[in-house]
Task: structure prediction
Amino acid sequence: MTTKARAHLRKAGMLASIAAAALIGLAPMAASSADAVKLNFWDMIWGPPEYIDAAKELVGEFNKQHPEIQVEYRSVPWNNWYQTFVTAISSGTAPDISTGAGYQAVQLYDQGAIRPIDDVIAELKADGELDDFLPNTVDTLRYDDHYVALPWGIDIRVWFYRKDLLEQAGVKVPTTWEELRAAAKATTKDGKYGIVASGDTGGSHFLYNAILNNGGGLFTADRKLDLKNDRNMEAFEALAAMVADGSVSPASTGYNSDDRRAAFNRGQAAFTLDGPGLIAQAGAEAKNIGVLPPLAGPHGDKATIFWVNNIMVYEQTKHPDEVKTFLKWWSKNQLPLWTKGNTGQLPTRKSIAADKAIKDDVARAYVLDNYVPIGKTTATNASGIFPALNDVEGEGAMQSFAQELWQGKPVGPIVDTAETRLKSILKE
Result:
C-alpha cells in the first residue's frame, strides 16, 4: 500500500469515528498526533548511558498521558554546551524547555532568552507542592525579583575515602582538616598517594570546597571579588601544604575528572573530592569506598560547594501553557532518573529523596542528610546568584589556579594571577 493510500485510509477512519461519536453523543476524540502541540526538550547528559534511556522513557510516558502535547527529547552533551544554547537562541531555534547547569538560567535570562516562571511557583505554592522542595533550592534560582527556573537536581562535592587503604595504613577516618592532612601523609607510599585531584573544572571544585569549608567565599556582600580574604588564603595554603607534603598525586595537574575518578577507583589514592554518584558508579570497587563526614575547618566551619541544577523555559516558545504543563509534570515524576537512569545528582524534591530507592543508597542518603544542609554556592557572601558566576566558573581562571597549585607553585603568585583574570571577567 502506498503512503498516499495509507493517508487516505487514516483520514477516512478518523472522519468515520468522529461521525459515530457525534451520532451517539460521545465526547469528541482527543487531538491526533498531527494536531498535538509539539515541544522541544533539550536535556543535558546527567549520568551514564542509561540516563538518556530513562529520560526518553519518561518523556514517552508524558506523551501517552498528554496526547494533546507531544514532547521531542534531545540529549545535549556537555562539550561546548554553552555555545550550543547561545547559537540556538541567536538563530531562533532555541528549545521550548531545557535542563541546565546551576547558573545557566540566570545567565541566559540576563540575555533576554529565559521566560520567568513566577506563575508556576505561585501555582505550586497554592497547591502545597512548593513545600516538597528541599530548603535553599527554589530561592537559589531567584534573580532580578523573578524565579528564572525550577530546581530539579543538586550537584554537590563530597570527600570520599578508600576503606582498604586507610585500614592498611592503620588510619582512622578523618573528621577535620588536620586529620585529613595526617591521613593523606600516612597513606602516601608504595606508589600510592593520599589525595588525587585534577586540573580541570573538577579540580577547581577542590578550591571552592576549601574556601567555603573555612568560612570564606569569592565575593563580598555587594558582589565584589574577594579572592584574597584571610579565610580564603588560609584554605589555599592548607591545600598547598598537602602538596608540599608529597601527599597529592603529581598526575593531578594533567588529569581530567574521569582520570581522577579512575585513579581513585583503582586504589591509587586514599581520598578524592567528587559528586554524590561516585560510589554508585564505581562498580566492583564500591565496597571499598566510603564518604567522609563533613570536615571541620581550622575554625570549626563545615561547608562545601553545591549547585542547584535547573529546568528552564525559553522566551522563544510559542506554547507557554503547554510548556508549563510539561514542566510541572516532569518535576513531579522524575524518580526514574534515579531508579533507572543512575543520575549522579541528588533530588531537590523531598518526596523523591524519601523514596526507598534513594534511602537504600546509603552514601546518597548520608550526603542528603549531612552535606546538602551545609551546601553553599559560588556566590556565597554575595546577595543571591548572578549571571557572571557562569563565567567565573567556566572561563578557566580557577582551573589554571588548581593546575599550578598541584604543581607546587607558591600560593601568592597563583592568587595574584587568578585575581587579575577574575576581575577582568567581572569587569571590576
